[in-house]
Specification:
Helix content: 25-40%
Bound molecules: 5'-O-[(S)-ethoxy(hydroxy)phosphoryl]adenosine
Largest sheet: 7 strands, mixed
Strand order of the largest sheet: 7-6-19-18-20-21-22
Number of strands: 32
Oligomer: single chain
Shape: globular
Strand content: 15-25%
Radius of gyration: 24 Å
CATH topology of the largest domain: Rossmann fold
Number of domains: 3
Length: 652
C-alpha cells in the first residue's frame, strides 16, 4: 500500500469471484437474505437507539436502563443506569434449564489430555474462584492480572473477576516478564493469576519464573495465585504465593454475581499503538457484552447444536470476545485447544475437528498460510464434513489463502466470514453475514447493522468508489472502547482528532462498486506480524535500551507466511562493532524485553537513518529498502540524501 501526500491510497488488487450464500445455509440462518440484512442495517442507522434497545433484550438485566445512550463525544455511556453481570449472563442463566448439562468447554491440552466442563461445572468453578478472590480481599473495582496458558481455568478466572466486578487484564503468555511488569504497573493490579508453566510445541514456557521477575517490580501485587499445569519446580514466596487447588479446596463455594452498572469496567487489554507505550483499552460491561453476544450469534450464525472453535489465545481480544464472552453468553459449546497447530504433527487441528465434530472454525490468515505451506495431505487425512462455517480474523486474507480455505478445509460448501475489527472496537464491525452476504475472496464485505463506517481522505472528505482512504466509524456503537485506561487525553488524541467527529481506525480501505469494503492494512506505525499487533516504536525502544545501540528504526516487510516480518535498521554507539554475534544478541535482547513475537527477523547495521529536516525518521523509505523495491515516493523533505544512497549500498 502507498499513501501519497494527499492522503489517497493507491489500490492494486482486483478480485471478481463472488460466492453467494448456499441456499440451504441461508434458509435456516438467523439473517436469511441480503434484503433482510439491508433492512436491519438501515433501521439501525436511522434509529440506532431503538435498534440497540431491541437487541439488548438478548441479555439478562438486573435493572433496566433509563437511557440507551449518553453521547458526549468522544465519551459514550450505553444503557445508562442499567445493571447486569457478565458472569451471570455467560454461565448462571444457562443453568436454569436443560443447558446446565450441555458442554460449555471441551478442552484439549497440548500433550493430549481431554476435559469437558458442562455449564453447571463452569458455574461451580467460577463461583468458587470468585469466592477465592474475595477471600484474598479483591473488591469491586480492583484489577486482577492474568498470565496463563490456554486452560479452562483461564476462562474461570476471567468470569470470576466479572462476577465480582474486578476488571481483569490478561497478558498473553508469550510476552516477557518485562512486558508483564509494564502492564501491571500501569493498571496497578492487586492480584496476579498465573501457572507454574505452559506447553508450547512440546517445550515449557516458564510462566511462574517470568511472573516472579515481573512482580519484583510491581509493588501493587499483594497475592499471586498459581495454577499447577505441568508440575514443574517453581520458586515460592510464602505469604504472597498460593496454589490454585489449595485455595479452591479451602474456600466456601458460594458467591452470588454482583449486579454491576452497565458502564462498570469489565476489562483492560493492552495493545500496541503508534507510540512505544502499550495502550490499556478499557471495555465496560453492558455494551461490550451486547456486541460480543450479538455478533457471535449473527456472524457465526450460532445454533444450539453447533460445536464452535475459535483458535485464538485469550491473551488477545479475539479470545476475549469469541472464546469467552460471545459464545458463552450464547450458551455455546466451545472447543479450546492449548497448544501449537503442528504438535505433534501438522494434522493436529484437523484431528481435533474430526474428533469433536467441530461445525464452526474461526482462525487467522497467518495460520491458514502455514497450513497451505504444510500441504493438503494433512487435512485430507481427516473427516472435516462436520464443518459448516469458516471464519478469518486478524489481518487481510489474501485471495489465494481464502480459496484454499474454501476448497480444502470447507470442501467448497462452507461460507467464509472474513471479519474486520480491532481490540478497540470490542466486537466484529465489518463482515459477511453467512446466510445473507455474497462473499468475495479478500473482502470483509459489509458493515454489521449498527455500524456506520466511511472511507475518507486526510481532510475528512468522503472517498469515491474504489478510491483508497482512511477507514473511520461515524456513529458510536455499544462495544466501543470507553477510553485508554487512566488517559482520557490520549484516547481523544489517538482516535478522535485526525478526522473530526469520527473514530479513526488506523486502517486504510476502499469500497468497491458493490459496497464491499477492502481493508488495506495499517496507515500508522503499527505492525501486524502473524496477526499480532506491535508498534514499530516498542521494538525500537527495546533495541535502543541495549547499551551498544545509538538509534533504531523498525519497519514491516512483506512476508508470505506472517503477513509482515520485522526489519530493524540500527546505528551503533561509537566504538561498538557490527557483528553477527551482536545481531544475535540484539534479537535475544528484544525477546527478553517484549517477547519472542517481537524478535526482529532482520537487523541491518547502518551509519545513518534517513530523516526529515524536522528529525522524523522516514519509515516509508526504509519500508521500500527492506522490501527491496525502488522508492517512488517524494524525498524532497529528506535531510541528508546521501544516507539513502548509503543504505542501499549497505544492503546485504
Ligand atoms: C487488522 C484483532 C483486514 C487491522 C481483532 C486492524 C484486519 C487490526 C482484519 C486490529 C481483517 C483485523 N481484514 N485486517 N479481517 N482483522 N485486521 O487489535 O489492521 O489485534 O486494525 O484486533 O488488525 O488488530 P487487533
Amino acid at each position: 500500500m502507498n499513501v501519497d501526500p494527499g492522503g489517497s491510497i493507491a489500490s492494486l488488487l482486483q478480485e471478481t469471484r463472488v460466492f453467494p450464500p448456499p441456499v440451504d445455509f441461508a434458509r435456516s440462518a438467523h439473517v436469511k437474505s441480503l434484503a433482510d440484512y439491508e433492512a436491519l442495517w438501515n433501521f439501525a442507522k436511522d434509529e440506532p437507539e431503538a435498534f440497540w434497545a431491541e437487541q439488548a433484550k438478548a441479555l439478562s438485566w438486573d435493572q433496566p436502563w433509563s437511557a440507551v445512550l449518553d453521547w458526549k463525544p468522544p465519551f459514550a455511556r450505553w444503557f445508562v443506569d442499567g445493571k447486569l453481570n457478565a458472569s451471570y449472563n455467560c454461565v448462571d442463566r444457562h443453568c436454569l434449564g436443560p443447558a446446565r448439562n450441555k458442554a460449555a468447554i471441551i478442552w484439549e491440552g497440548e500433550p493430549g489430555e481431554r476435559r469437558v466442563l458442562r455449564y453447571q461445572d463452569l458455574k461451580r468453578e467460577v463461583e468458587r474462584f470468585a469466592s477465592v478472590l474475595k477471600g484474598l480481599g479483591v473488591k469491586k473495582g480492583d484489577v486482577v492480572a492474568v498470565y496463563m496458558p490456554l486452560v479452562p481455568e483461564l476462562v474461570v478466572a476471567l468470569l470470576a473477576c466479572a462476577r465480582l466486578g474486578a476488571p481483569h487484564t490478561v497478558v498473553f503468555g508469550g510476552f516477557s516478564g518485562e512486558s508483564l511488569a509494564g502492564r501491571i504497573q500501569d493498571c496497578k493490579a492487586k492480584v496476579l493469576v498465573t501457572a507454574d508453566a505452559g506447553y508450547r510445541r512440546g517445550k515449557l514456557i516458564p510462566l511462574k519464573d517470568n511472573a516472579d521477575a515481573a512482580v519484583a517490580h510491581c509493588p501493587s501485587i499483594e497475592n499471586v495465585i498459581v495454577y499447577e499445569r505441568v508440575k514443574s519446580k517453581v520458586h515460592w514466596s510464602p505469604g504472597r504465593d498460593h496454589w490454585w487447588h489449595e485455595l479452591m479446596a479451602s474456600t466456601p463455594p458460594d458467591c452470588p454475581p454482583e449486579p454491576l452498572d452497565s458502564e462498570h469496567p469489565l476489562y483492560i487489554l493492552y495493545t500496541s499503538g503508534s507510540t512505544g507505550k502499550p495502550k490499556g483499552i478499557l471495555h465496560t460491561t453492558g455494551g461490550y457484552l451486547l456486541g460480543a453476544h450479538l455478533t457471535t450469534r449473527w456472524v457465526f450464525d450460532l445454533k444450539d447444536d453447533d460445536t464452535y472453535w475459535c483458535t485464538a489465545d485469550v491473551g488477545w481480544v479475539t479470545g476475549h470476545t469469541y472464546l469467552v464472552y460471545g459464545p458463552l453468553s450464547n450458551g455455546a459449546t466451545c472447543v479450546m485447544y492449548e497448544g501449537a497447530p503442528n504438535w505433534p504433527d501438522e494434522g493436529r487441528f484437523w484431528r481435533i475437528i474430526e474428533d469433536y465434530r467441530v461445525s464452526i472454525l474461526y482462525t487467522a490468515p497467518t495460520a491458514i498460510r502455514a497450513f497451505m505451506k504444510w500441504g493438503e495431505q494433512f487435512p485430507r487425512r481427516h473427516d472435516l464434513s462436520s464443518l459448516r462455517l469458516l471464519g478469518s480474523v486478524g489481518e487481510p486474507i489474501n485471495p489465494e489463502a481464502w480459496m484454499w480455505y474454501h476448497k480444502v478445509i470447507g470442501g467448497g460448501r462452507c461460507p467464509i466470514v472474513d471479519t474486520w475489527w480491532q481490540t478497540e472496537t470490542g466486537s466484529i464491525m465489518i463482515s459477511p453475514l453467512p446466510g445473507a452476504t455474497p462473499t468475495v475472496p479478500g473482502s470483509a464485505t459489509r458493515p454489521l447493522p449498527g455500524i456506520v463506517p466511511e472511507i475518507v481522505t486526510k481532510d475528512g472528505a468522503p472517498c469515491g468508489t474504489n478510491q483508497g482512504g482512511f477507514l473511520v466509524i461515524k456513529q458510536p456503537w455499544p462495544s466501543m472502547l470507553r477510553t485508554l485506561y487512566g488517559d482520557d487525553a490520549r484516547y481523544q488524541s489517538q482516535y478522535w482528532s485526525d478526522i473530526p467527529g469520527c473514530y479513526f481506525t488506523g486502517d486504510g480501505a476502499r469500497r468497491d462498486e458493490s459496497g464491499n469494503y477492502w481493508i488495506m492494512g495499517r496507515v500508522d506505525d503499527v505492525l501486524n506480524v502473524a496477526g499480532h499487533r506491535l508498534s514499530t516504536m516498542e521494538v525500537e525502544s527495546a533495541l535502543v535500551s541495549h547499551p551498544q545501540v545509538a538509534e533504531a528504526a523498525v519497519v514491516g516487510k512483506p512476508d508470505d507466511l506472517k503477513g509482515q516480518s520485522i526489519a530493524a535498521f540500527v546505528t551503533l554507539e561509537t566504538g561498538a562493532i557490527a557483528s553477527e554475534s551482536l545481531r544475535e544478541e540484539l534479537r535475544s535482547h528484544v525477546t527478553r524485553e517484549i517477547g519472542a513475537l517481537a524478535r526482529p527477523d532482520e537487523i541491518r547495521f547502518t551509519e545513518g537513518l534517513p530523516k526529515t529536516r524536522s528529525g522524523k525518521i522516514m519509515r516509508r523509505l526504509l519500508r521500500d529498502i527492506a522490501a527491496g523495491v525502488e522508492s517512488s515516493g517524494d524525498t524532497s523533505t529528506l535531510e541528508d540524501l546521501t544516507v539513502l544512497a548509503r543504505l542501499r549500498t549497505e544492503e546485504e
